[in-house]
Amino acid sequence: MRIREVNIRKNLLKDYGLPDIEMTRLERVVVVAGPNGIGKTRLLKAIRRCGELRNELADESFDELESEKKVLVGTLKSASISKLNQAERDALEDRIDKIRKKSEIISSLKVDASHELRLPIVEILPKKSDLATIGSQTLSQIRDRASRLRRGDIELDGLSDSAFSYIFSEQNSYFEATHPERGNYRGNANEIIARYKRLENSINDFLGAKLSRSAQGEPMLFGQTLDMHGLSAGQIVLLQIAIALHAREQDLRNSILFLDEPENHLHSAALIEVVDNLLSKIGSGQIWICTHSIPLIAHLASIDPFYIWYMNREGVERAGRKPETILQGLLGRKDARQNLFNFLKLPQELAAANYASQCLLPPQVIAASAKTDPQLSQIAKQLRERAELEMRAVKILDFGAGKGRLLSGLYENFADNEGSLSQYVDYYAFEPEHANRDLCQEVIDNVYGRGVDRYFWDLEQIKSKNLRFDVVCLCNVLHEIHPDEWWKLFREDMQSILDEGGSVLLVEDHHLPTGERAHEFGFIMLDTDELSTLFSVQPGEGGSLFRFADERGDGRLKAHAIHRTLLERLTEESQLGAFKALCGRALREIANLRKIEGPDYSTGQRLGLWTQLLANASLFLHARGNG
């Protein structure tokens, strides 16, 4: 059973201090997000109270109540009302008011079984993720706890203390029922056996493990006794849920489950594990979750944005398509939201920086990295060997250095494994934006000491010092540079700062997770085929002048090493050819993505990426008269 609509007027349950609540087209999961103190818990309590009142009215027909109300209202309006004294009139009006309120309560929650008034609402999430073992409890105490749990006298707060006792008691009863020759059992053996099998199946459903019993009569899971269980926090909670449902004889597949701020009792990974497990078993039931956990909200929004609602002082609104509303409500200040966004981007940026460091090697090493995916320790060792072979440090320019993560990654690894990085890597940073200058300079100072001029914000500064580099690394940079600037970048600037045998190293995340408007054409992402066209790479030049590596083998994080001599081949014609090739590939990617059956969130994300790339490349071609 599922609640399909909630329509609670604020005057219906005045004690709860809620605004008018109106929620329609509710899904199998209802996530109500909002900051502390806004009323999320009170909302669940109000819905639960309406459910309890409906259950009390389950024997009364809504149609019969309405008919009685019409008769009573008609009596009040009729001439015979004059024959009633004031007390009788008051009693009549009071009866009408009670019927009206009952009708409001019944209609406040609409369910998918219109004939059913009773709502099987269960507060399901235990408050503790540990288990109390039997210890020194007497058999009488164990039986008492198990019996109280069956009667519903023990709430969720006490589940962790009673779960062990419950299983122990159920297993003992089952053992006696299946060993009648012992003469210790009195009762319906078939009923006890069936009951225990339901518990066994429930635990197996939730944990994927069969409940068993040791020779000493102790409950066992995963081949270990429960007091030596080694279960994760999420597994312990799932075990308690299985026991709670069994004790209350609730069928999860037809229950309405309430989880109130579960993040207060479980860390994010365990919480998502529990919720995913419940989702896989809920059937025609429903889960309500009140939360301010951004990881949980993000996880469930990726499954279906329609699950997500946001609560404020005016009421509740659907917010799955308005994540900024949720983030603003939960995080407050704009800079807090930006800090979160920056932190979430950090793994991708670090992965790109680490991969770029892997590619700062001779040709044969770059080719090997795609197959072996060496760790930074291996890269550092090979950089050291290259520097020793050439009897000088490898000179690198980090073009668009940002916070200096490329240097930071290399520095930390050298410090742990290879000694001083400065002996083997001669690093320089170029970053025209000043926002992260201090952070990048701090990394440089840590490696090379203060007072060394290694940070530049203008290429003319580099040219004036007549610096020449073995590698100029552009890590997640090229897609942000306006195509009109490519000619100057590759044919002039790179030519003037690269050594004769030097290369440009382009590293890009080709599954860019967020769109950007870096310039009038948005952003442009070129892969191997388009770069080959851009620089007119000829057959046979792939091994020495043009190389690429695919870090994960999935086409996402790729690096291209382009020799200095190829940069001179960039022409207006080759650039147009590269953009036409990008349009063609974008069309093929879009067509393939639309053929996928049962697409998920990541499929939609990639479809959005390729649609944008097709539009951006087409806009460029149109602007050049080739649209």
UniProtKB/TrEMBL annotation:
Domain AAA+ ATPase: start-end pairs: 26-315
InterPro entries for the chain: AAA+_ATPase (IPR003593), ATPase_AAA_core (IPR003959), Bact_Antivir_Def_Nuclease (IPR051396), P-loop_NTPase (IPR027417), SAM-dependent_MTases_sf (IPR029063)
GO MF terms held by the record: ATP binding; ATP hydrolysis activity
Entry-linked Pfam families: AAA_21, Methyltransf_23
Gene3D superfamilies the record matches: P-loop containing nucleotide triphosphate hydrolases, Vaccinia Virus protein VP39
Protein name, per record: AAA+ ATPase domain-containing protein
